[in-house]
Each structure stands twice: as C-alpha cells, then as structure tokens.
C-alpha cells in the first residue's frame, strides 16, 4: 500500500491516493485479485479504440467543469497487461482530463492476460 500526494497548479488542491487490493495482497503480487484504484499518468494509458467513435463535445465540456469544481468522481476502467495499461471506457472523462491539462487520472485497474486484451480488441 502506498500513498501519493498530487498537486494541481490551477487550484493547488492536495489529495492522497492509495492502492490496496481487497485481499491485502500487494498489487504487484501474482496472488493479487480484484481491481485497485490508482492515479495513472494520461500518457501511460493506451487507448486502442480511440478512433472508433467521437466524443460528445458538450459532455466533455460538462465533465471539465465538474472535474474543475469537485474532481473526478468515478474512476475510468483500465486493463493492465504485462505492465502496460489499456483504457477501453471513460473516453469523455479521459478527454476532459487532457483538455484541462491534468497529468494524471484516477483509474480502476484490473489485471488481465493477453487473451483478455485480445477479447477487448474484437
């Protein structure tokens, strides 16, 4: 379990992010099960389905306003396979973070295999 403090220059808000799987096993352990909540850099999340549809600009704008005021309330879902992170949902939240210039985003990270990744790419 780790603790990180992140500062956003525009609002100078501090918050602590911690990660611990439900069963108390460290995330990097082969025994870890279930998702964990992590703050990940946007540039470390691969978006393989990015070009399949466009985001609703009004929804992105509303999310930007909300995130500016109260922060991200629902983490995006991310699949971790062999140390790489893949985002398949949360497109509007991800774009809102990009447009706000935020370096990281809160993610619910699940571990998967290459077969799981192939299934998501179908």
UniProtKB/TrEMBL annotation:
InterPro entries: ParB/Sulfiredoxin_sf, ParB_N, Sulfiredoxin. Its EC number is 1.8.98.2. CDD domains: Srx. GO terms for biological process: cellular response to oxidative stress. Residues 38-117 form the ParB-like N-terminal domain. GO terms for cellular component: cytoplasm. Pfam families: ParB_N. Gene3D superfamilies: Conserved hypothetical protein from pyrococcus furiosus pfu- 392566-001, ParB domain. The keyword Nucleotide-binding applies. Belongs to the sulfiredoxin family. This is sulfiredoxin.
């Amino acid at each position: 379990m780790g603790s990180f403090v992140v500062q956003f220059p525009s609002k100078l808000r501090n918050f602590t992010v911690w990660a611990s799987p439900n069963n108390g096993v460290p995330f990097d352990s082969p025994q870890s099960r279930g998702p964990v909540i992590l703050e990940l850099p946007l540039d470390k999340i691969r978006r393989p389905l990015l070009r399949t549809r466009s985001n609703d600009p009004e929804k992105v704008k509303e999310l930007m306003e909300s995130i500016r005021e109260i922060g991200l309330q629902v983490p995006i879902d991310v699949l971790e396979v062999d140390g790489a992170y893949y985002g398949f949902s949360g497109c509007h939240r991800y774009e809102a973070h990009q447009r706000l210039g935020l370096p990281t985003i809160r993610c619910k990270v699940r571990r998967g295999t290459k077969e799981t990744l192939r299934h998501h790419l179908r």
